[in-house]
Amino acid sequence: MVFLSITNFVRCRGPDEFWRKRRIFRLAAHYIGRRRNCYSIAVRNVHRALVYATKARKLKKEDMKDLWTTRITAACEQHNITYFTLKEGLDRANIMLDRKSLSDLASWEPRTFESLAAVAKQKMVADQFIDTVDKNNPTGVNLNLRDVMLDVWLKENKK
């Protein structure tokens, strides 16, 4: 860029300012009114939005953990077992499944989850472990591993 006078040179701050503002305006493109067009207002709103986005990434992870735990607890109550007993029984049986996997099984494959719950309960009975963490007895159907596996075997042989 060629400047014919020194006053024009002083007024121009160079390409750095253009690209700095351009980045802010690009992030504020979906805002309405002066929040999108006026730089001093746009920069405040963009910085606030970036702070919220940073916090939200951590909160999303916590929300998903809570959702998975709630789904597993609900499925455990259907099978008359507590969440602690399920996790402890699966750990003792060397079945390493995380919350997400157990939640997906509880939601989309209830028969598989029922078998896992029966395995966990059977392992806890075999180890003579008493669940003292949760004194409330869940309301649901009592599980027996032999019955769960026998039902599947009978259904396969009838076909």
Automatic annotation (TrEMBL):
One term under GO cellular component: ribosome
SUPFAM superfamilies: Ribosomal protein L20 (SSF74731)
Single Gene Ontology BP annotation: translation
Gene Ontology terms, MF aspect: rRNA binding; structural constituent of ribosome
Keywords annotated in UniProt: Ribonucleoprotein, Ribosomal protein
Highest taxon in the source lineage: Eukaryota
Record-linked InterPro entries: Ribosomal_bL20, Ribosomal_protein_bL20_C
Similarity comment: family membership: Belongs to the bacterial ribosomal protein bL20 family.
Listed name of the protein: Large ribosomal subunit protein bL20m
Organism: Plutella xylostella (Diamondback moth)
